[in-house]
Amino acid sequence: MEFNSLAYALFLAIVTALYFSPLMTKSAGRQNMLVLAVSYLFYGVWDWRFLSLIILTTLTTYGTGLLIERRRSAVWPIANVALNLAVLAMFKYFDFFSENVRGLMRMFGWEMDWFTLDVLLPVGISFYTFQAIGYTMDVWRGEIRATRNPILFATFITYFPQLVAGPIERASALMPQLDRVNRWQWHEGVAGLRLILWGLFKKVAVADPCGYLVDGYYGQCASESDGLRCYMAAILFAVQLYCDFSGYCDIAAGSARMLGVRLTQNFNRPYISRNFVEFWQRWHMSLTRWFTDYLYIPLGGSRKGIRRHFLNVMVVFLVSGLWHGAGWGFIIWGGACGFFYWFQKRLGYDSYRGKSQPRLPDLPRIFATFSLYAVLLVPFRLNGDIYMALELCWRYIVPISMIAVLVFKVLFTIVRLMAHAVASFQIEVVSRRTFFFGGACTAFLILAWFYPRVAWYHLYLALALVAYGFEWVTRGVIGWSSPFPLPSRRMPRMCLYMCLYLFILTYGLLRLPPVSDDTTFLYFQF
Question: Is-catalytic flag, 309?
């Protein structure tokens, strides 16, 4: 059951109505039993056979928490973490490992009959496994007490809005919200629906059209060796990946907020980052915090010298790449991101926290950071053909990206000089408003002139600029945000949002060009 489907819209409406019914609002236990049942139903629609894995993770982690408090021994957390990682490795990495071992043996002239499992990857296994491991480690460290309520804990592991693609929630943040009676509040319901609409817009109107173009461009790159198409494919895939994943998180947060629960923010406008250090404070924030708390800091962090710091950073990013998928493309992506993160960290770049938000003079650095990340995503996208990905990067994408960054910086400098000249222009006949209005009209005429010469579906890229523009103007806002107006009157605004919800879903279901036939969220495969 995908978020961008009419089935989920109906499912969410029914769950919300039942959740806030008088029978359920008598106790938090009844509400959690309902959420647990619908979460199993939600996941079972994908493949009911994998429900056994979630139940196994739930029971073993719940029991481990109780055993840790009863008898504090390192055996219990080690055994539980090993079991969870073993299940994850069996379904996600066994075939990758066996194929590479067989290839390595073949290099030495040895032929091995190594078997593979060839099983379907359970949806969301990486997310709920890490959530369970985080709970075990928090109990072991004494940061939280182990819950003795099995229904509450099972609801925490299988909470349907964030079950299949995150964000990765901490028990200290989510469980207290589940362990209370949540009652319907109009402003929370409307705010949740606003987030759902914004997530659907990013998924249906931006990510899916970009995916259609990316598939076509990479196909042409392989056959025609067109460097400009390769560069466009890299840029558009970066847009597709972000709008797809952040769109899912917006829908998940909106769904949970309608039920009175606030999820952790997973993205904070990463494409306005001025460097890689800041970027990784804004991108997939729940996963970054998980690796920081449970891997980077236990390894020593940056406290044991430059070499150890470099080693710790590379371990975290390589594991992060491997977490995304079993393939060398993901490992290369993680290693490259780790190197640039460490390099800019050593140069003195720091995170954005405590500093001013990006401004217009920062646009060249923002564009350079975005271009670099788009290049690093090429092996991530072409994971099945690493040699092709590296060849396209070396021959086309990297040189064109460097030229694009230089051209952007030169144009930005020229525009700044012109704006400064206009700002100091004292002739009363020509005002600033007139100047900018005339420039907008000129741009419109140029677009109208070239429109017949441009494929019509390229105009959908303007929607990506709309999404980026909204994130730019709201860069100072803390927490989730949506461009839809705030609720004023209750019922009219709710009815308007519901109409927009159905309209966007209808657009996606019609598969209007250039929407790809495959509209599944990308992170479902991770």
Answer: no
